Amino acid sequence: MAEVNGLRKAAVLMVQLGKERSAAVLSAMRDSEVEEITSEIARLESIDAATAQRVMDEFEELVTAHKYYSRGGLAFARDVLEASVGSEKARDIIERLNASLTEMPFQFLRRADPRQIISFVQDEHPQTIALVLAHMGSEQAAVVLSGLAPELQSDVAHRIAIMDRTSPETVKLVEGIFEKKLSTVLSQSSESSNVGGLGPLVDIINRSDRTTERLILESLELRDHELAELVRAQMFMFEDILSLDDKAVQLVLRQVEAADLATALKGVREEVRAKVLKNMSERAAENLEEEIELLGPVRLKTVEESQAKVVHVIRQLEESGQIIIQRGSDDEFIE
Description:
The relative contact order is 0.05. 71% of the residues lie in helices and 0% in strands. It is mainly α. Helix 4 (49-85) packs across helix 5 (87-101) and helix 6 (114-121) packs across helix 8 (138-146).
């Protein structure tokens, strides 16, 4: 594998992982990394089975070594690997692990808010700012650059464009200075916890009475229409149909197109499909199951759109008082 570089190995690995898994991996990478790997994938004409297997084996070895490293450090990882694969192979794996653990300069900036970085760099020399931005992710760097004064933006952009090589000593020096400056901000960021957000708000609304819910949503609508729509979309998910009683489900099914219902049920949990089918006539249930099978593979977006239509019907029926959606465990009913 000595003649196969790291980029080629990454491309081979992505191909072997398949579309869905490789897409998930690429989504966690920087734009520049995605461009490099996808370009390399495009250049892959054919991969012989032996090379593909060696790449997968090496990846597995690195993952295993990293797991041991996380448990007890490099020495522990080396000891465990030597006991399992022998000292020579363990040494090769540890060398690759060391290389993968070596961070690129300014990695600490990834934990910082770009708006905070602006306040720290705006008074620095343009060449220093250019050096910092050149080591940041493109999206994060774009936010910082756009936050600088117009005349400074053009100067920094020009310096980034003509920047060639910078000595490791200079990079290390600038990195150390900025890490020290940002240390307070970064420590506060890492110690903070998420206590708000869309999820907690939806939980609160779902446990509120109908009047309170309406007041909150109407107020949100006036402040932020898009946010109000996001909240509405999450308040009742398609699979929450399990919480409806049979009469409510039957009422919903009478107002949903058969094609939308078949698509909406594609890939859902078995108990959700069973809940729907048991509230249909035997013949209608058989027809629906046949239609679901005939659909074949369906895009996730298409399924979600059909599910949204069903949820919309449920919301309309609740608005008109024809069905009741139980909210939380504190609802009280009078027989």
